[in-house]
Amino acid sequence: MLKRAFIIDDDEISLFLTEAILEEENIAKEYQSYQYAQDALNDIIEGLEVEKIPDIIFLDLNMPLMSGWSFLNRLLPYENQLEEKCSIYILTSSVDIEEEEKAKGYRLVKGFLHKPLEESSVQEIKQHYR
Amino acid sequence: MMCDANFTSDFYKAIVKNSTELISVLDQAGEYMFVGASVEPVLGYEAHELLGTNAIDYIHKNDAAFALSALEKICTEKEVRMLPLRFKAKNGDWRWIECTITNMLDNESVRGIVANSRDVTQEVENELKKEQSQSFYKSLFHDHPDAVFTLNTDGYFEDANKQFPRLINYSEEEIKGKHFTELVHPSYTKEVTYAFNKALAGQAHTIEALVLTKQGKEIDICVTIVPIFFKGSVEGVHVIARDITQLKRSDRLIREQADQLNSVVESIAEPFFALDKQWCYTYVNKAYAAFLGKYREEMLGNNIWETYPQSVHSLFYYKCHEVASSGLPVSFEEPYSKPREAVIRFSVFPSSNGISVYFRDVIEERGLEAELEKLSLVASQTTNGVIITDGDGKVEWVNNSFERLTGYSFAEVLHKEPGELLQGVETDQETVARIRKKLAEAVPFSEEILNYRKNGEKVWFSMIITPILDTKGHVSKFIAIQSDTTDKKRSELELKQMASDLSIQNKSLQQFTYFISHNLRAPVANASGLAALLPRIDKNSKKFESVLSKLQTSVSHLDSIIKDMNTILSLRDGNQLLPLEDVNLSAVCTEVINSLQESIVELGVTTLVDVDTDCVVQASKAYLHNIFYNLLLNAIKYRATDRKLIIAVKCRQNKDGEVEIIISDNGSGMEMGLVKDQLFKLYKRFHLNTTGRGVGLFLVKTQVEAMKGRIEVDSTPNVGTSFKIYLKYNVEESFYNR
Predict the structure, then answer these.
(1) In this structure, are residues B647 and B733 in contact, taking their beta carbons and an 8 Å threshold?
(2) Each residue's pLDDT tens digit, B336-385
(3) Is the four-CA dihedral B416, B422, B424, B426 of positive or negative sign?
């Protein structure tokens, strides 16, 4: 079981839903939800120093103030430190294929998921970490 | 020897008779009392013939007075010598008689005046002859039309005639004692001195020299130097000098002209030759010699018809004869097939001693002329406008089609730059600048430009401009060919407009897809996710209720989004035919503030409205209301929490014919660097803790633009936000005529 999962989504309902599904599937010991990507970014950067980084991040793309893309870009300088330790899964309501292609350009992004998060997807991820 | 007894009277008589002395005795009145017998051989009279006659009567009337005065004089003097006078001999000749008379009136044996006379005719005549010849030579000296002067053997001036001062301006007095070298130009001193010495050696000769007048003016003279012989030795020289300055000058001029003429004829690239009356070459220029491949020297003097018998009976042959007999010049052309195809244009001129001929091959010109004729036909008949300008771009020629296309006649554009007349307000200045640059670079180019016909009608011309360079590489002409592309251009512009419309349409379609993909799908995803979760949760747990309520929220969210979509779609479709009306800005502002009165009072908001009550804009009242409502509502929503909100609405007209509406607040503001690209986009939100859905500003912008206005925003975090809306107050034309 994974230690720590971050969920970043400005949509309160979506955030609630994703956390509820992850809990149901028991993927991690601890879940942290962020409505604001900047907060999650701060926690990750601080956590790097004390080895307290999330094992997995579910990231929405379309968010005010700091979008999912901005978040990914801000993490670029830490890519080397985070790789192997932290996987990011995009979780978006968008069905835009271009965005999926774009996401493949980020080394930390391990998957592209469409909302709502489905049981089967979570189980696949769990398989991966077994 | 008076009386001596030894001599008889006959003795005396003989002596007297044969003496050349004529002795006679006269009384006081001059009457002969005695005449010696020697009168007969001298004057032919018998002695007795004269006795009793008066001597005065025989004397020449010019000399008579003189003789009478001598008679008077002798009364008081012993002896009077008289100068020779003329006495009439018996044969009627005048003889010159020299006479001495002696008063012997007191002598008892004589009682008269004794005259001793001698015939001096020979001497007097000799003397006269001498005098006459001297005067001849004097005239030759003094009255000579040339300057004549005498130099002594040392070369000093002795005498000069009256022409002399006219020649060199020295008077006779001034010149005396001067040495001739003082007058000679230094460059001639040696030569003249030599000539002088040659004359002293006894040789008369003539030389030319340059001398200086008293004023220093140089004159050319021709001098003849003649030695003066006296008793076998040279006593000096006579010099006859003539001014030949004019002569020299004309001589020089003639020579120069001849030289010039010669070099002109030589430099003519075309063949030229002269024939004398016997048809022999007297002059052949280089080109002619080269034309025939001969040396000039071998041609001169040869008869042309003998040298070129094949030319006899040619047109040239007959024309040469015609000129020789008529004395009038002719020009003609004669075609030749040998040695090569040629059309020779001859010009034959009569001259004083024959004829001159000048010719050249005009076959190429003929060809060019024919070609030019064809080209000119093309240029004048083509349906395209053709303009020919000089190197400075000033019109030299235009064809008929130019007149038809532009409405300007040839005379109206002559010597003008076509652009001056054809370009107008809407002509693209960048195109004009580009054309100027290309013209200056002298390279061929093509351009499309908006011009104006004489009647003001707009016309698009496609221009092909070609510079024509002279042999030195300078532009001598430009040729411009214009074709009317107005129709093409119009459809091009229509296409462009269509493309732009399509692009806008496409953009909004993309936006719609994005909207569906992101915003419409989000609540749907939530709802379906929650619905899937629901069966797995205990119906009696708190979580079940929470999921259920979130499901309800999601569905109502979906509903409101669909409503927004409807608004947006109807707004977009309606834009094309949006009717604009006069809207009083102040009234709309007041209405909106009133509708928000509740919040304004509750939150203690200050509204500062500075809008002229007369300010009227062309707008849609509903849109304007919505715009104001959204912006004011935003100001209220995003107010700063630590201070009372102040909203200011200002309105002013700017010089571009726009109304500028400024709505500013002292609210929480935004970081412009973060939001500026996103602010007016649909479903973009920038605040987390408020109720916005991200539709308001999208609608505001869409509505402003539907009224042909624009909107700008400026904001500083924690200071405030300011929206500026620009609306045209007379938008009718630009709106309906797009």
Answers:
(1) no
(2) 877 678 888 899 999 888 899 988 888 777 777 778 788 778 877 788 89
(3) negative
Run of H or E residues at B264? helix B245-267
Q: How many CB pairs below 8 A link A and B?
A: 73
Identify the pLDDT of residue B732. Answer: 44
Beta bridge partners, B353, equal none
List Cβ neighbours of A57 (8 Å cut-off, separation of 6 or more).
A5, A6, A7, A8, A40, A86, A87, A88, A89
CA distance B723 to B275: 103
- Strand-pairing partners, residue B651, are B661
CATH number listed for the domain at residues A2-128: 3.40.50.2300
Identify the residue among B510, B530, B553, B695 best suited for mutation to test binding to A, counting A beta carbons within 10 A and taking the highest: B530
CA angle B98, B100, B106 (to 5 degrees): 155
Domain boundaries, given as residue ranges, for chain A: 2-128
For residue A115, give how far its alpha carbon lies from the nearest alpha carbon of chain B (Å): 5
Predicted confidence (pLDDT) at residue A108 exceeds the cutoff of 90: yes
Q: How crowded is the C-beta side of A35, counted as CA atoms within 13 Å?
A: 9
Alpha-carbon gap, residue A123 to B66, rounded angstroms: 187
SS3 of residue B69 by DSSP: helix
Within 8 A of A94 by CB-CB distance, chain B residues are: 517-518, 521
The DSSP bridge partners found for residue B447 are B463
| Interval B269-319: pLDDT, tens | 788 889 999 999 988 888 888 888 888 888 888 999 998 888 888 889 999
ipTM over 0.90: no
Q: Is B512 on the interface with A (CB under 8 A)?
A: no
* Spatial separation of the C-alpha atoms in residues B307 and B284, rounded to whole Å: 14
Q: For residues B401 and B384, give the distance between their C-alpha atoms in angstroms, rounded to a whole number.
A: 6
Mutate to test the interface with A, among B512, B517, B690 (most CBs of A within 10 A): B517
Of A10, A13, A114, the CB nearest to B526: A13
- Torsion from C-alpha of B470, B474, B477, B480, nearest 10 degrees: 120
User: How many whole angstroms separate alpha carbon B116 and alpha carbon B36?
Assistant: 10
- How far, in Å, CA of B694 to CA of A64, rounded? 10
- Pair B585, B617: CB distance under 8 Å: yes
Q: Domains of chain B by range and CATH?
A: 9-127 (3.30.450.20), 144-249 (3.30.450.20), 268-365 (3.30.450.20), 382-484 (3.30.450.20), 492-569 (1.10.287.130), 578-736 (3.30.565.10)
- Helix, strand, or coil (residue B701): helix
Nearest CA among B436, B437, B464, B433 for reference residue B448: B464
Q: Residues of chain B whose pLDDT is less than 70?
A: 1-8, 12-19, 339, 511, 514-518, 571-578, 674, 677-678, 681-694, 729-738
| Residue B563, both tokens | 């409503």
- Token look-up 């083509």 returns B382
SS in 3 state form for B498-547?
A: HHHHHHHHHHHHHHHHHHHHHHHHHHHHHHHHHHHHHHHCCCCCHHHHHH
Structure tokens given for B379: 């240029």
CA distance A96 to chain B (A): 7
